[in-house]
Amino acid sequence: MNNNCIETKNLTKSYGKARGIREVSLVVEEGEIFGFIGPNGAGKSTTIRSLLGMITPSAGEAKIFNLDVRKNRKEILQGIGYMPSEAMFYTGMRVGDIIQYSADLHKKDCSKEADILCDRLKLDKKKKVEELSLGNRKKVSIICAMQHDPKLYILDEPTSGLDPLMQREFFNLLEEKHKQGATLFMSSHVLSEIQHHCTKAAIIREGRIIVSDTVEALSKTNTRRVALTIMGNEKIAKQLEERLTKQIKDLNIKASGAELINMEFLYTGDMNALVQYIGQTNIVDIRITEPDLEEIFMHYYTNGGMNNDCI
Amino acid sequence: MTVFKQEMKQNKKTLIIWTASVSLMSFICLMMFSEMKGMVSEMDEMFSSMGNFTKAFGMDQMSIGTIAGFYGVECGNILGLGGGFLASLLAVNMLSKEEGGRTAEFLFTHPISRVQIITEKLIAVFVQILLFNLVFIVFSCIGIALLGEDMNWGNFALYHMANLFMQLEIAAICYGLSSYIRRGGLGAGLGLAAMFYFLNIISNITESAKVLKYITPFSYTEAADIFASGKLEMKYLIVGIVVSVLAIGIAYVHYNKKDITA
After folding, report:
1. Annotated domain spans of chain B
2. How far is A75 from chain B, CA to nearest CA, in Å?
3. Residue A64, Cβ density class (10 Å: 0-12 exposed, 13-18 middle, ≥19 buried)
4. Which of A19, A291, B168, B201 is the most buried (most CB within 10 A)?
5. pLDDT digits (tens, 9 = 90+) for B157-192
């Protein structure tokens, strides 16, 4: 027995042309806080729905707690706390009724835990659910996900709609659960959230996992942001682009003043080639810095990101 | 039975209002019998000489001047429509409302199997239909007792059993439908019930449309047949039962593997 909490192998779900996921392979080990990052419509929710057994994958397999998600759905769900990205509840019911219904479906008495959570999140149990704001609906789902003390949390964009104070309280709660041994899997497109709270992360784009690694490794990269000011005209800049076309991304050329060219780009690859080329020009100013995580992700989001040189 | 309880709670208001209004309407109608009885001969003549209209409601086979005939035609139509509509509106949204209301992500991520959800929701539909019929029958019994009329209670029971079967069949068909749709089933459900009702009327009027009787479940609830013969039209009933079982089977098979995406 390994201690994989979530494991998917070539998980594929196709609906029509555009949406779906392709050959998603992920491993989340017990005790990890795993971030799942991707733009809207990249397949985050599809992956999560496959894990929860709501949809049947077209190919591949998915296991949670080393059990097949299709065959052992009920058993698996007993150990999961799930927070949907857009929580909706039954109209006419009160907050307390929903929390109770969730506990009943788990066949557990969680009233004490629910009261503590309501108190910490400042949620009024007597309110009708249709009167709740998005943030308050989120709080109801937080309680429904946490009150039965699951081993694994699956959180789909958990912080959207929560005010900063509540976000902090929410992450405090998650931290406590994590210390008690829970595993966390959360999707987000707020990168700072992933950077601050997660130990590992995977990026998904157009249904494919582009990269999956520790957050530390993801942040460390041999890509550099280069800002260059040289004497000359745009021709020189174009030459650079032609010569190093494979290594350069996000090139931005601006002519500034007389015969001065500003260039900014991301450079990945052999530094000697860059320095050699720059050596032939008339340099006015040069800056070479590490790109921030946000920039790396943006690069993955927008540029296909299929070549993995960058990270 | 958590889901069952939840459904009963959720539908409580609708069920109470519907049951009360249909039962009361029928009760008031029934109370008019004593007045009608006085005018029986003219009434009877009038009602039995309206050609197709007479045939449509089976008044060619029994007299509206007797309590059974009056009950079957007047209250029977209220029960037929009221019960048929209730059955369809209860069943047609029972499964689909989870996706339509976007609560599916709540329910289906709890540790309960789909088969159990389907079963408990189906039981909720059936129990509500039973409750409706029970209340309706109690009102009718009180009404008939108040009138001091002599009713053939055996036929009365048979007649209500047929109605119960009819409602269960409509519910079963709508339940099967509910497993396919995501939202907006109400129109389809009510339309289906209304269509069945009118198919039966058409088949009463037109001899060549008799075959429609196999399609509509209202065919075996014909008061005129039941109160006259004391028997149910088994050939129609059996078709109805087969259709019901099939529809429910489809609901189980399809909903169990359906992709829940909303």
Report:
1. 2-257
2. 7
3. buried
4. B168
5. 999 999 999 999 999 999 999 999 988 789 999 999
